[in-house]
Each structure stands twice: as structure tokens, then as C-alpha cells.
Specification:
heterodimer; A: alpha/beta; Rossmann fold; 7-stranded mixed sheet; globular; B: 8-stranded mixed sheet; two-stranded antiparallel sheet
Chain lengths: ~200, ~400
């Protein structure tokens, strides 16, 4: 298994590959701004992050980023259509109270929406659930259920079904194996540990 | 701003002005601009004085200056002490000093009493050189923009080439934003707290009640009164009312609740002071009339009411279009005078205009005056904003 620190950066590299240089990027759930900082350094993007937490906003401001403390949907509603070249929703989508609302709003204010999430259909996650019969805990999900934020664990099949149902075009995707590094090309819902999608209207 | 920052001298082991993170004893200075100054209204005065203080030193490249802008009733004395016997330090002493969030070892901090004020700067209580008597309401109407232009002349006089930042809460936040709009190349960072791009009807309404209290006081006499007279009752009432808008239901309740004054006569049916909050407000009113001029109060509240970025520039986005620096807007959850929503609006407009801008919101129950709060969270955000991208060797921890 890859170490968690590397797992944290692997999707940063893929997203950076997808981001066009000098574009306007919005990160929903920017945390302390690590991803945006990386994109500013590597792609000279003009970056804005949204997060709910004051100390994370402080950390983002310390990195020199634009960061907005508040609700992501109300934030996006304050912007005209396609104001951003790309909206990023990395490892946030499973914790959204209204995923459909956020994704549709992100596709309104952004030309492209990048969504990255842990695939709960991954075989190890299935076996975990089957054998242990308990909430998954691993290098990524370290907390007990009673210490965790509410979450909607989703799978690659779930997500692609959602895109079909909402008539959202998948412009490209990246499925990564359990090590979150090697590309996974067969049976992704079973064999991929992590998934990234570029969506467009 | 409220006058609550009293510190118990006995609580300190060493004299407070000698504390290592204190700017210490400071001396106000006067900047005299001896040329005609034209106000936004078109009215002209032959010159003006701004009283100001500075802390720290201007660097060789003259670009480490931070301008502090005060609120309605504030002044130039924002840090340090005028005398070891002072009951309290400058109004933002918790934020400004060696090693503090606005670090005077790094930055050259400047704060001036606004044009139209009454703490040493030229305003309606100043003598009109043409008549030899106080201007009174013959003083030109002052706008936030006039205040900012006067402060820019002071900064030019001090040799400041570029502002590292401009910081202000409430009316100070309005000045900070206008400084960046009017002098975009000069202003690298704007930190505006508990402020607004334009007052709501409610805020204007409160100001109007204050003005009416002053103007309905017969001693106001159409603004014509001598220094030791004037509408003291009206001004005190204006201050009592305004003070309520600077705090919050929760903070007043915590501070006073329904506690009665010690000498209150039980449940007596009298209109004498019974509740502590009444005595507190009366004290606020009384201490205010000893330091503030009623005409200045009229002028400055009018300047606040007239301030409307969206109207003046077509839209907020157009107002912010010239900005070249970074902006940080901070709102406070319990601020019901300039509520978080009005602060958020500023940051969103800046971002829509394609500017670098951040918005943070601090949960406090202290109301509008929360920007004066002693909060490590606030300090660390202010420091992060002012010092980001700068690498210093000095290891400091507070």
C-alpha cells in the first residue's frame, strides 16, 4: 500500500496534468490550500478556494491564495455562468449534503468540473465490509464512524450512473489501482481504488 | 467603537508601556498641508492639519508602511501610550506592536485622525482662518474619499513609496478599500474588517437618530457653539444609542444582564438609574462628550451614509476593477451593524472582478466591535495575510 502522504498527492499530479496553464480555477473544499498552491506553482493558475473552516482559510491565505469561508453552493451562486475555467471537487463529493445541487451548480459556473473520489466498489473495500462487517478504516479513512463527518460512500458505477441520469458528459477520466498510482484499465469498479473525472455539460 | 478596553494597571508586574511587545510611549505629530484642498463637494479649504502617530521605521525601499484607518469615533492613537499614567493604550494596541500581528519591527505603521475629525485634525471645530472662529457647519462636507486623499498626502509627506497594506475596521474598512481603489499601484494589500460597501437603511437610520439628538439639542445652535459648550446632551444620547449598535444582545446580557446598581432602590417606582446597563450607557455618553465634537459627529456619520461604492463607480465590480493588490475581508458573525453578508458581498464582488481576494468569518458574540477582539485566531489570520510570501529569519513566538 502506498503511504497516505503519497496518496494525498497522487491526484494533485493528475489534476495538474488536466489543468490548462493560466486558467481560472475554483477548488470546492480547498482545505489548507495544498492542491491550489501546487496548481499556482506548476500551472500559474488564478486560484480561489472555498472552505467552511476559519483556520483552513488562514492556512490558504498564508500560502498567498484567495480563499473564501462559506457555503460552496451560495458561493457559486454569486458568479456568472462559466466564470471559472475549472471547478475542482477533490475528495469532497462524498461529504456533500446535496451532491446533485453542487455538481450542477459547479457545471454552471465552470466550463469543466473535476471530481475525484475514493472508489468504495474497490474489491478490498468490498471484502472489508463483507468480512469485518464494519465501517471501512484504512490509511485514508482513519476514523471510526462516530468520529467521522456524515458521508455518502460512492462507487465508480454509482458515479457514472449519476452522470448518465443527469446527462452530464464525461470528458475524460482516470482510474487508479489500489496503490492509487498505476492506471487501472479493466473492471474499474472492482479494481480501481481511486477515480477522477472531468465533467462538462 | 466602544471605550471598553480599560486595563487594570495593578495586573501588570512591569509597566505596561515597557512590555516587550508594546510600542511604548508615543508622541502624536501634526502634518500641516499648507495648500488649498478641494473636497469631493467642490468646496475648498486653504489647508489642513492631520494629527498622526507612527510606530516602527520606514525601510530603505520605503515600502513597508501599513496605514491604519480608524472608525467613526476613533483617532490616530492606535497603539502605545502617551504617558505611563494613561489608563489605557491606543485603541488597537492588542494588534499592533513588536512581534504582534501587525509587527512594528517589520512594518512602519501610520495612523492619522481623519479629516473632519476632532482629535487634532482639521474639522468643524477647527478655526476658520477667514473668520477666526470655528468652522461649525460652514466646514465643507467630508466624504470617505476626502479622508483617504488627505491621508495619501500625509503618506507622501512621510516618504512612503508604496503601502505594504492598509487596515481598517468599520469606517476604517471603507477608507482601506477606497485607498486601494483610488491609489491602486500604491496599495498592495487591503485588510477590511466589519465593514460594508454601503450602509443599509438600518445603519443610516441609526446615524440619523444620533444626528437628530444633536441637532434637536438647543445648545447645538446650528453648529455654532464654543469649545466648552455645545449640544452635550444630544451628543451623549447619540453616543448611548450608537454604542448599543456596536455590541450585541448576547454580549450586553453577559456583561450586565438585569443586574441592578448597588444603590438602586429595590423595585422603586422611579426613573432614576436602576440597571447597571443604564449607568454604563450614561458613562459612555458622558466620557464621549469630553472627547468628541458634536459637529464632527454630524459630518462623519454623514460621510458614512454617503459612502456607496456601487453607486459611485457603477457597480462594486467596477469600483474594484483598478485594484492591483490583495484584499482580505473579515466579517464577524454577531455584527448586526455591518453584518457578515455585507462583508461577504465585498469579497464576492472582488472575485467576480477577477481580483485576488479572501473572506474569513470569525464566530464571536461581541457584535460590530468584534474587530477589536483579542483573538489569537484573528491575529494569526492578519499575520498570515501581511507576512505571506515574505521569508524572515527571525524566530518569534507569542
Amino acid at each position: 500500500m502506498t503511504r497516505p502522504a503519497e496518496k494525498r498527492t497522487v491526484d494533485m499530479q493528475i489534476i495538474a496534468d488536466w489543468v490548462e496553464p493560466g486558467t481560472r480555477v475554483l477548488d470546492l473544499g480547498c482545505g489548507s490550500g495544498a492542491l491550489l498552491d501546487y496548481l499556482v506553482q506548476s500551472k500559474k493558475v488564478s486560484a480561489v478556494g472555498v472552505d467552511l473552516d476559519f483556520s483552513r482559510i488562514t492556512a490558504s491565505v498564508r500560502r498567498g491564495l484567495s480563499a473564501y469561508q462559506g457555503d460552496m453552493t451560495s458561493f457559486m451562486r454569486a458568479f456568472p455562468e462559466q466564470h471559472f475555467d475549472r471547478v475542482i471537487c477533490s475528495r469532497t463529493v462524498q461529504e456533500l449534503a446535496d451532491p446533485t445541487g453542487v455538481i450542477l451548480e459547479a457545471l454552471r459556473v465552470g466550463r469543466t468540473l473535476t471530481v475525484g473520489f475514493v472508489n468504495h466498489g474497490f474489491w478490498k473495500n468490498r471484502i472489508n465490509t463483507l468480512v469485518q462487517g464494519r465501517k471501512i478504516r484504512n490509511a485514508v479513512y482513519t476514523t471510526e464512524w462516530f468520529e467521522s463527518r456524515p458521508a455518502n460512500p460512492l462507487t465508480i458505477a454509482d458515479f457514472e450512473h449519476f452522470c448518465v441520469a443527469k446527462k452530464i458528459r464525461i470528458a475524460r477520466h482516470a482510474h487508479l489501482a489500489g496503490n492509487w498510482h498505476t492506471p487501472c484499465r479493466t473492471l474499474p469498479n472492482l479494481l480501481a481504488g481511486y477515480a477522477l473525472y472531468d465533467l462538462a455539460r | 467603537m466602544t471605550d471598553d478596553l480599560e486595563i487594570d494597571p495593578a495586573a501588570d508586574a512591569i509597566p505596561r508601556h515597557l512590555a516587550p511587545d508594546d510600542v511604548g510611549l508615543v508622541v502624536p505629530r501634526d502634518f500641516v498641508f499648507a495648500q488649498p484642498f478641494t473636497f469631493k463637494s467642490g468646496q475648498v479649504i486653504s489647508g489642513f492639519t492631520l494629527r498622526y502617530e507612527t510606530y516602527g521605521a520606514l525601510n530603505a525601499t520605503r515600502d513597508n508602511a501599513i496605514l491604519i484607518c480608524h472608525a467613526l469615533s476613533g483617532d490616530h492613537h492606535c497603539a502605545g501610550w502617551h504617558s505611563p499614567a494613561d489608563k489605557k493604550p491606543g485603541w488597537w494596541n492588542n494588534l499592533i506592536g513588536p512581534g504582534k500581528a501587525v509587527d512594528t519591527r517589520r512594518f512602519f505603521v501610520v495612523c492619522a485622525n481623519v479629516l473632519g475629525g476632532c482629535q487634532g485634525s482639521t474639522g468643524p471645530s477647527s478655526l476658520n482662518p477667514e473668520t477666526g472662529r470655528p468652522y461649525g457647519i460652514q466646514f465643507p462636507f467630508v466624504t470617505i474619499g476626502d479622508m483617504v486623499r488627505a491621508q495619501k498626502l500625509l503618506l507622501d509627506h512621510l516618504g512612503v513609496a508604496e503601502l505594504h497594506g492598509v487596515i481598517g475596521g468599520s469606517m476604517g474598512g471603507m477608507q482601506a478599500m477606497l485607498m486601494a481603489i483610488e491609489f491602486p499601484r500604491f496599495t498592495r494589500r487591503v485588510l477590511a474588517m466589519a465593514t460594508t460597501g454601503r450602509e443599509s437603511a438600518q445603519a443610516i437610520a441609526f446615524n440619523e437618530v444620533g444626528r437628530q439628538a444633536i441637532m434637536q439639542d438647543p445648545a447645538w445652535n446650528h453648529g455654532d457653539y464654543s469649545k466648552d459648550a455645545g449640544p452635550r446632551v444630544g451628543l451623549a444620547i447619540a453616543r448611548m444609542m450608537a454604542h448599543i449598535t456596536y455590541v450585541s444582545d448576547a454580549s450586553m446580557d453577559r456583561k450586565f444582564g438585569r443586574r441592578k446598581k448597588e444603590n438602586a432602590n429595590g423595585d422603586a417606582y422611579t426613573f432614576d438609574q436602576q440597571f447597571e446597563v443604564e449607568g454604563y450607557l450614561r458613562h459612555q455618553g458622558q466620557s464621549f462628550i469630553n472627547r468628541f465634537d458634536a459637529n464632527s459627529y454630524l459630518y462623519i456619520t454623514r460621510a458614512l451614509d454617503q459612502f456607496d461604492l456601487a453607486h459611485a463607480y457603477g457597480s462594486l465590480e467596477q469600483a474594484f476593477a483598478p485594484l492591483e493588490g490583495d484584499t482580505l475581508v473579515i466579517g464577524f458573525t454577531s455584527d448586526w451593524l455591518f453584518p457578515p453578508e455585507q462583508n461577504r458581498t465585498l469579497a464576492l464582488a472582488l472575485l467576480r472582478a477577477g481580483k485576488r481576494a479572501s473572506y474569513a468569518e470569525l464566530s464571536t458574540d461581541l457584535g460590530h466591535d468584534s474587530f477589536l477582539l483579542e483573538s489569537e485566531e484573528l491575529y494569526s489570520l492578519v499575520r498570515a495575510f501581511l507576512e505571506r510570501g515574505q521569508h524572515y529569519d527571525s524566530n518569534y513566538s507569542i
